[in-house]
Amino acid sequence: PASTARLPHGHLSVGGVSLAETADRFDTPAYVVDENEIRTRCRTYRAAFPAADVLYAAKAFLCRAMVRWIDEEGLGLDVCSAGELDLAHAAGFPPERMVLHGNAKSPRDLATALRLGVGRIVVDSPSEIARIAALTGPARRQKVMVRVVPGVAAGGHEKIRTGTEDQKFGLSLTDGSAQHAIARVLGQSSLELTGLHCHIGSQITDVKPYLVAVRRMVGLMARVHESHGVTLPELDLGGGHGVAHRPGEPALDPTALARRLTAELAASCAVAGLPVPRLVIEPGRAIAAPAGVALYRVLAVKHTGRTLFVAVDGGMSDNPRPALYGARYAPRLVGRVPTAGPVAATVVGRHCEAGDVLAADVPLPGDVRPGDLLAVPVAGAYQVSMASAYNLVGRPPVVAVHGGTARLLIRRETQEDLRRRDVGA
Ligand code: LLP
Asked: Most CB within 10 Å of its CB: which of 49, 184, 238, 363?
């Protein structure tokens, strides 16, 4: 699929809709989501992994329309809170095609999951096993998986690496806590262990760590077979497939990943003497990120020291990723054709701290001026979902574009919204 990463300066439309008109109609800052690109990415995954269960990781970006698109494209849903579960359920998504994650599931998370009948729950700590079992009735066994730490270091930034021992997720393979949890689950008559899960990290652009994870997970499945005589039908490898934010950056190609994973899984299972389990994958970013564009209006341009600062009407409240992970974006001038060549600029937000930088040292046309529109491509994942109300700047709207028309999915958060939650004094 075509990614918004390839938009040139001056490019006017996404999904057949002019970005400049979208900015005029819905005001800025705003997020724009290309429905067709989301659907195309879902189809690419379904085609690349025809025998696997592809779950979209809702944490990347969730709203009712997104739930509907994911459902219509035949994917399942990975949710990690009662809130995500509730929204997906309210939008009509079948709970049995959802998987619940979380290292610290609240009583409400678990109660909601069992009440709605979520497909599988991924166990992340020993104490959770009895908590889930206590909520099941005699009539219904709950399907669970156990999250394992395969000891693989991968991911675009230290804060999103989850495959190694020194982080909070999963149960260790090396100290026996994964094996112990598996035995406990197998001992609970109200729980059905469907398989093992791992998620090694996020924004991974190399296939190799996934292949190592497959070998280790199949090794563990073989030990489960030896010790308990149980053949587990599923292996969930999580998500983490990396995307390019700037032209020329690497991305993980789902088709190449599928080919290598399937081959490795078959080979590892042959060595272990196990039947090949059904694969489950959980891409979030790879489906949502390339389909989104963030739109900002330039409010101020100035030189300070050696830097040309271009300040826009959003910032770290609508995109905390540069501040949190050092994420790099490539803003483009849109809505007019530039009349000057590129200069190095630093695009900053409107928030009251110096770390509120959206894109440091990026090329922008030298005639950039207040009133200009900037578009930040590949803004569809972990931006809407991680937005905050810092400085009581309301969160931006989400606009879907499709076949030449734009429609509002999430409205702008107003000052009244922000005031209404404040019930004290
Ligand atoms: N499955 C599990 C269990 C996960 O924890 C995650 C992401 C995913 C799937 C989806 O990963 P993806 O395919 O989207 O990489 N806020 C960070 C990313 C945190 C990812 C957390 N877990 C960011 O903006 O980069």
From this structure: 238
> HSE on the CB side for 315, CA within 13 Å?
24
Q: Measuring from each residue's beta carbon to the nearest atom of ligand 1, which residues come in under 6 Å?
A: 57, 59-60, 78, 101, 160, 199, 202-203, 238-241, 282-286, 321, 325, 382, 386
What one-character-per-residue DSSP string does 111-137 give? HHHHHHT-SEEEE-SHHHHHHHHHH--
- Counting atoms of ligand 1 from 1, which one is nearest the CA of 283? 13
pLDDT at 1 over 50: no
Q: What is the token pair recorded at 325?
A: 């992970």
Q: Is 15 annotated as a binding residue?
A: no
207: tokens are 């296939």
Which ranges in 203-253 belong to alpha helices (H)?
Answer: 208-228
- Output the average pLDDT for the chain: 95
Residue 187: both structure tokens together: 């001992």
Instruction: Tell me if 37 is assigned to a ligand binding site.
Output: no
What residues form DSSP beta bridges with 122? 145
pLDDT above 70 covers what percent of the chain? 98
pLDDT digits 0-9 by tens, 176-213: 999 999 999 999 999 999 999 999 999 999 999 999 99
User: What letter does residue 15 receive in the DSSP assignment?
Assistant: T
Distance from residue 330's CA to the centre of ligand 1 (Å): 22
Which atom of ligand 1 has the smallest separation from the CA of 321? 24
352 classed as catalytic: yes
Amino acid at 166: D
Probe target for ligand 1 pocket from 282, 318, 328, with the most ligand atoms within 8 Å of CB: 282
Pocket test for ligand 1, best of 70, 202, 204, 325 (most atoms within 8 A of CB): 202
pLDDT of 156 over the 90 cut: no
353 annotated to a ligand binding site: yes
Q: What is the pLDDT of residues 61-75, one digit of tens each?
A: 999 999 999 999 999
Distance CA 68, CA 192 (A): 29
For 75, the 3-state DSSP assignment is coil
Domains of the chain: 4-14+22-29+290-420 (2.40.37.10), 35-288 (3.20.20.10)
What is the Cα–Cα distance from 30 to 408, expressed in whole angstroms? 10
**What is the three-class DSSP state of 65?**
helix
